[in-house]
Design brief:
Elements: H1 8-11, E1 34-36, H2 38-44, E2 47-52, H3 62-73, E3 80-84, H4 88-100, E4 103-109, H5 115-123, E5 127-131, H6 135-148, E6 151-153, H7 159-165, H8 167-176, E7 182-186, H9 191-203, E8 228-234, H10 239-242, H11 264-273, E9 277-281, H12 283-297, H13 303-317, E10 326-331, H14 339-343, H15 357-364
Parallel strand pairs: 2-10, 3-4, 3-6, 4-5, 7-8, 7-10, 8-9
Antiparallel strand pairs: 1-2
Helix pairs in contact: 3-4, 3-7, 4-5, 7-9, 8-9, 9-11, 12-13
The structure holds pyridoxal-5'-phosphate.
Pyridoxal-5'-phosphate is lined by residues 60, 62, 88, 156, 186-192, 255-256, 302, 304-305, 332-333.
């Protein structure tokens, strides 16, 4: 019988606040590859898998939360959705708004959005506003906007976002047969680490601070355990590591360039309840991790995603990775969104040669 992945709401509807009769907006998100990264086994001494979220319809994990947030909007009277964004939220909101027949407004920090992400918001017809400020300023404005106008907020402060995003943890358990020992994530606004913790906890039969109902308590547990949650921030945007907001967050990893995370409490809860930690890595470590994943594993990710890999490598160097531990790193977004950063500092001068086999063989030094 023909079968196609149905998108995260239909695949996990018994664990989400939706009924079969509800309108559902999906672009087929979720069902992303879990790739065994043997090169990282060798570097860390663990058994390392990467959850390749760049394979989602708009190229980041944001689609998991957008199918739920935008489907929920269709149960209300709102005709416009709005978000603040470091890039991927706006790309996803714009695409799902198209699928839903809604208008989309996005508030962006001027000059800090990767070209690929900006292109997505533009081609999907979003109404863009660039603010001379950072992401935290944009989120404040969009919150005020949605309080005063009939506009639905689709940032991760909307609880439906985390509901959709928790399905990634379900998929990991479904693929491995149980929860891993450790799960590593980049942390920006801290919604995703909170969502994974909720997903793992609910699959093991208990709820978390972020849970919206107690349905998990009434469904047979799928997992026998939960992983330690390891969160990784960028050095210049590490409020959860420092314990206070960062006024002027700076990092090459624009997706996690956030100084005052909205899901701060949930993230601390995930860290503490799971006996995990949140650390920070430098831009240099992030770019090196991005290059390692591309050249040694075959997966091209954006800098924000590479924070998880950089954090794992750093932990291994500090002797914090237990031998043989089963580890999943979420790599959150597709490298094609920001080729300028990936190519910075590389030699791009490829001189043309004669169109002959001989010249080609010489050029390849075969
Ligand atoms: C949004 C995003 C993050 C940060 O996720 P939070 O839920 O804000 O912590 C990391 N990487 C990419 C590629 C993102 O788009």
């Amino acid at each position: 019988m023909a079968h196609q992945w149905q998108g995260v709401i239909r695949e996990y509807i018994d664990r989400l606040p939706f009924a079969e009769s509800d309108p559902i907006v999906t672009l087929g998100e979720g069902g992303t590859p879990l790739v065994h990264a043997t090169a990282l086994d060798a570097r860390t001494g663990g058994e390392v898998y990467v959850k390749v979220e760049g394979m989602n319809p708009t190229g980041s994990f944001k689609d998991r939360g957008m199918t739920t947030a935008i489907s929920h909007v269709l149960r209300s009277d709102a005709k416009i959705v709005a978000c603040a964004s470091t890039g991927n939220t706006s790309a996803s909101a714009a695409a799902y708004a198209v699928a839903a027949g809604l208008k989309c407004a996005v508030i962006l920090p001027a000059g800090k959005i990767a070209a690929g992400k900006l292109a997505q918001a533009i081609v999907h017809g979003a109404n863009l506003v660039a603010v001379d400020g950072n992401f935290d300023d944009c989120l404040r404005i969009v919150r005020e906007l949605t309080e005063r106008f009939p506009v639905a907020l689709v940032n991760s402060v909307n609880p439906y976002r985390l509901q959709g995003q928790k399905t990634a943890a379900f998929e990991v358990v479904d693929a491995l047969g149980d929860a891993p020992d450790i799960h590593v994530l980049p942390v920006g606004n801290a919604g995703n680490i909170s969502a994974y913790w909720m997903g793992y906890s609910e699959y093991a039969g208990h709820t978390t601070l972020a849970s919206v109902d107690d349905s998990a308590l009434h469904i047979e547990p799928v997992a026998t355990k939960v992983p330690q949650m390891w969160g990784v921030q960028a050095w210049g945007a590490a409020p959860l590591v420092l314990g206070h907001p960062v006024e002027k967050p700076e990092t090459v990893a624009t997706a996690i360039r956030i100084g005052n995370p909205a899901s701060w409490k949930y993230a601390e809860d995930a860290r503490d309840q799971s006996h995990g930690w949140i650390d920070r890595v430098t831009d240099e470590q992030i770019l090196e991790a991005q290059a390692i994943l591309a050249a040694e594993v075959g997966v091209f990710i954006e800098p924000g995603s590479a924070a998880s890999i950089a954090g794992l490598i750093k932990a291994a160097e500090e002797g914090k990775v237990p031998a043989g531990a089963k580890i999943v790193c979420t790599v959150t977004g597709n490298g094609l969104k920001d080729t300028a950063t990936a190519l910075a500092g590389r030699n791009l001068e490829i001189n043309p040669i004669e169109p002959t086999l001989q010249a080609t063989v010489e050029a390849l030094a075969l």
